[in-house]
## 1
Amino acid sequence: MRKVICLLAAVLVLALMFSGSAYSARKKIIRIGVNAPLTGDIPKVGEGSKYAAMMWLEDIEKAGGLEVGGKKYEVELIIEDNESKAESAVKANTKMITQDDVLAIVGPQSSKQAVPAGEVANKYKTVMISPWSTNPNTTLDRPFVFRGCFLDPFQGPVVANFITEEFGFTKAAVLYDVASDYPKGLAEVFKAAWEKKHGAGSVVAYESFTTKDTDFSSQLTKIVKSGAQVLFTPQYYNEVPLIVQQAKDLGWQGPIVGSDSWGSAETVELCGEACYGLFFSSHYAAAGAKGATKAFIDRYADTYGYIPDDVAALTWDALRLVQKAIQDAGDYTGRVEKDRKAVKDALAQIKNFAGITGNMTFTAEGDPIKCAVIVKINDQGEYEFYKSSCP
Amino acid sequence: MELARKFKEMFSTVPMIGWLLGILVGVLIEFYWGYDYISYYLGLPKIPVLFGALIMLKEPLMIPGAIGYDLIVYVIPVFLVARVTTFATNPLATFLEKLPLIVSVLIHLVFFYFILHLWSGINDYRELVVRLTMVSIILTISINVINGYQGEFSCSHPGFMAIGAYVSSILTLLLFTNDKIFGEALLPAYLGPWFFPIALVLGGFAAAIGSLLVAIPSFKTRGDYLAIISLAFMFIVKSAVENLNAIGGARGMGGQGEFAPLWVIFIWTILAIWIIHNFVTSILGKALNAVRDDEAASESMTVKTRKTKMTAFMFGAFWAGVAGGLFAHVLAYINPGMFGINRLAEILAMVYFGGLNSIIGSIVGAVSINVLGEALRPLELFKWIIIPLILIFVMIFRPYGLISFKEFNVKRMLRAKSKREQGA
């Protein structure tokens, strides 16, 4: 009995003695949350977001903190892993909002996490910017939720117009993942846009597969036989190389066109020469970039050893948007509910924000009006600017 | 060891109600002084949400502070109050013993819920974790009926869960929410909470009917082959939902009303534990074990094996459907991708970690996997190395899970504990 009490007392005293910052007052810190898929299906996307966020923090720290209303505040980044799962993204958002008292959240990237996570952010009246989610539902009827990229209903017609103008084709094939909401949504939008241009039945093959499939030969055989002139496949970096290589093996001659999900550095790495000369629509082009975009790309490549994906660039822009909104709000009170609302109001007011992925102005829904870029994969395997298309 | 034994002996006279009282005191301390005084003087930015696990892993400097906080708020008050109040709690427990068992259990449950409510009310993240953990408890017990008591290796649980989640969501969305898929609400929103149990039960029934697709083949196949059939069932459900654009397809379905607050889920969890416990200890429940151990022998002993298997599958699937419905309304969003192979791995991990053939084991499994999953969150990738490693070690040292083949006895758990009885 006595021994137990002595032991407990000793542990307690030791704990108190070594708790370094004991008796220190709570500081007014600006906390920004990042909700990223660091593990799970698309870890490369999470890595890009994390690195971009760390670069942003480095800048803030170099400046000695974030200046708001004439005073400098320390900034802390809370980077949470959402495991690429919806419920984990919801948990991460709830944790950051209620436990860490973040002022704003950047992320989640994929729509299947951003849609439910946006619900949480809106419920707790906290600003959330999803840099990469293209599903309209993410921001719909949610005043506190914004996004950093264009939407599928804009991207689909851009690609359809580009193919028509560039090649003059009239018959297209589509291959997409029916189980994942981004490819499925974009495939539908593309089909509608294409058929509006070239008449019903001009999408001669509309084939689907399921996430984690690796053999597309039966779908591709149908596509090759259908007489399509171009193949549109809005897939992620883990599937694009397989699709492209299998299509070539099965005798596909025409061009293959993709969407912004191709924009990962891994696509070319895995695909190699088979992907050279292909086109996709994206948010920005790394090769031949100028100004602030080039500065960002060079710095990222120097620090982490590879050219940043569009996710990294969009995350960077989202964080800069948050930063500008906090500064525009003018006064940081430390009372988190009030500050969150001020940040939201300031963010909605931002006009012509010069981001590295283009200029942005938010609509009432929280979606930016910005240009899409058509990127060509050149013979060095770099993503080269080819054309831009503005709304 | 000597110390541990002494320690155990010292607290052996504390009845359940005494422990609850101790925990209540701890939670009250946290509630009133946790933020303003205790965590402040220990240099913690806020009340540590999951016993300080998150903050300890993120900032090692905070470890002493977090440990100190746990000691001051939980460990010391809980043990001290529990031990000191035995003079009062033991007579109280004796008094409660004289009441009908159901009354005594209800008193304990209400008391327990009150503590849980207070504890999780301190932070919404805590509450979300508690709610999802309770859903996992229902899920784990329900799969234990099939994989443990009935002894089939069924992989179709995410499918049952998906059916329950979709059916109940469709009902509540159709009736009480203005949304894009189903249009205007048909009934006024205030009826929602009253109708919600019916939606859940209907979801459960739908899952039970779906389970016949696996139960009927189980008459003739067993083991690996049935596992493949059940796996196929899971993929059928997932692909079917993905291709049904009327219910959102791969985009999923969102905007479910907030019909699942903590107390609703608590009641459903208690109901599930109570009903499933009664089921598996009934004659039919014993028949499940008989069929598992030797099908031919039990058939010759007049056990109707087909009926038994069908009941086990339908009963397990019903509760999985209910859990799915609760899950959908906690997250207010579902998509078919949630009910895939990842979910299956999670459910199987919970049930095999906790222990087969034991309700208490399932609860332990569900709680530990959920809490571990959250507590190790800051480790990111390493979390996925540590949790599987723990699972492997459990399987090496306890091949049937932590607590297997063990039933709990409520009467024994709640009774008074005097010194005299200890000796006997």
## 2
Amino acid sequence: MDLAYDATYTVFRDEVRDFLRTHRDRMPKRSGHRPTDEQIAWQTLLIEHGYAARTIPEAYGGHGAEPDILKSRIIAEAFAEAGAPGGLANQGISMLVPTLLELGTEAQKTTLIPPTLRGELVWCQGYSEPGAGSDLASLTTRGEDDGENFIINGQKIWTSTAHAADMIFCLVRTEPDAPKHEGISYLIFSMKTPGIEVRPLLTMTGAAEFNEVFFTDVKVPKTQIVGGRGQGWFVANATLKHERGMLGDPNAAHARLQAIIEILKTETLDGQRLMDHPLYLDRLMQLQARVISMQANGLRLLTAAQRKEPVGMAGLIVKLQGCELNHQLAALAIDALGELGVLYHGSPHQRDGGVWQHRYMFDLGLIIGGGTAQIQKNIIAERGLGMPREPKLAKV
Amino acid sequence: MDFALSPDQIAMQDSLDRTLERVAPLDRVRQIAAQDLPTAPEVRAALAELGAPAVLVPEAHGGLGLGVLDAALLAETLGRHTACAPFLGPALAAIALDLCGSEGQKAVWLPLIASGEASFGVAISEPASGARMAAGVRAENGRLSGQALFVLDFADAAAFIVADETGGLHLVPADAPGLTRTALTTIDRTRSVGELVFGEVLAERLPEGDSRAALARMRDVGRVLLAADTLGAAQRMLERAVAYAADRKQFGRVIGSFQAVKHLCAEMAAELEPARALVWYAAYAQDALPGEATLTAAHAKAHLGDVGRFVARTATEVFGGIGITDLLGLHYAFKRIGLDRQLLGAPERARRDAAVAQGFIPA
């Protein structure tokens, strides 16, 4: 065990820090669902320097570096410490691009990956349906073969960014007579195709973070498929493993903890710092121990990835524990703020832009989404502990 | 950058695991627990043969000169087997002697600790946990008076390292005139805890170095080793629960196929796995990251106290009625975890220390 970086990495870290110092004036502000011109310019600069799309081949618009997990971590750390916006991490970049790299045709890779990486082409994900949540493979949106096209009818839900997206990667049942996991195809098509209707889905936070998407006789050429007909389930699983890695990130929990420490140092109750209130302090320390645990767990995963060893249980627990921890951190901030903690919607005296209530509500969605806590426990018990698998009762 | 155990560390842990499987199986643990005092000479001898008491003794004095992470891996394995043998006492005594002992004291005692010939008890409960019953030890003119409670590895001790109220450290032979030793009986019959009452006892001060800093290191390392002990005991409880759930049938199915039971096991694993990383990190910090040593030791102690309690009750529940019987013997681990939690600072105390270590509140 040795947590020090050796010399080549400290040199690399200095390079990244230098870059961030000299380009501070070009850093864009955060925006909504579509990257601004400023963000696209920043993203292009990051790809050029290898701080975004680092290991994606140059032929597909990436930087083309050899994978080096420590360098990736150093980049992330240096950007976080400088408060600099990192490379774009939308669903197209995080989920579609790795899938195309693994399973796309050469034409799909060369035409779709470069503009996606730059942030010019925005994607949404059409997986979940009202009747297909945890049991995603039971989805019923159907694509009928008319010879040249699939004619798509059905409904998707939880489609974030659908209203702003150019394209969708979508799971559609194209082989109605095949067993449920073998009748699905992974289709990619324009959101401007006639017959698509997007309705915003208002959530408890007060914002429409998701959408419902309705398809009525949407005509998609049969060539716009990734992988073969009926292989969509396996293509999608290649993507889902990329999504689970994004949820439960311990660095996000660490940043939240620091913000709560500031609250406890600066806010007062009856003139006394919250930090001097033993009950809040005790809860803060309980959560700090969990944050440090998850960071240390992250170091284990990092070492395993570097050595190309399986991560085992340490990897399986990240989504469950990480999302729960983030939720509990938001709860502590709310509790420590007392009545101030419920101020929202831009109220006078609202703290931190109402972000703690927003997170508390939004994170409940993250505990449910991307594989519910209960599904995660099944996975931990079955794959991690070798316990009996759930019976597969549903037959389609 | 590498956060994993070395092949040597894994081999050392495996070899202790196999030894304890052989010399201290559950039936032997049961016998030991029925004794008046928890001592098991053959377990102690087996540990000495593997070099366990030598782990934190410098090589110059006949030890192995290894790190706190190595010691923590041994503690984890001892916890896994609910092993009855002094470990924490000799390990912390070696730290005290190494940091504050005179050359003469080191030359006499460190080789004896390393070889396992002399075991030590350690009396630092009052400075580490806070004083109960107004206990405390005063040092005046080379003599100790007062009372020290919850002395670790009490029964086998040839001598004790005793902290006084000002943070001074003293060496007191077990047969020192004026010293009254009383065993305290805890829920855990696999380790010995006792009380020392000092009536003007002539003691040897450990004269060198900064004894307060040494005492802090003893507390921190002790906390890490107790956390590791709990990790091992809890991991074993989880493994036993999972194995039982694969075997036990009710309603015509193995109970491990019921989601209610699977989820209990998943929750235990989800709590334990990051706790393991925390124990490694805290143990590594004791030697490599001095600025984080007190903070991470306090967090490891408190967090494993809580995770251990959760696993201990949940694993017992997976077994159902048989879980609470001596026939099964799961309760030895349950009680081991229960004792670990309270010693050298229960969770609330340790978390307060973690806050102090960051300057959030005054000491």
